[in-house]
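tool=predict chain=A
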Amino acid sequence: MNQIHIVDGDKIVKDPVPELQKVERFLGLDHEISYNNFYFNETKGFYCMKYESKNKCLSDSKGLKHPDVDPTVIHKLKEFLYRYNEMFQRRVGMRFDWQ
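tool=predict ok
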């Protein structure tokens, strides 16, 4: 697993800096990413990049609400995927909040 880095997408959305700093460390890069590179966009509900000349946020097609899915379908999927998710999480040494 020393050539593969897993990024937790939920953590990137909630607090991108620590997760991106892990990517810098994994790639052996100098630490350039800090909270100075981001701002929280209240309208969109997630972090956006802050540049010297201008700010950049994901387009309006990103960050959309998930569709409503029948709870029975969700339960069946979770039940079916549980064993595989556990195996994956053990293998990569990470826990994900996949409820």
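Helices lie at 9-14, 16-27, 71-92. The two ends are 25 Å apart (CA to CA).
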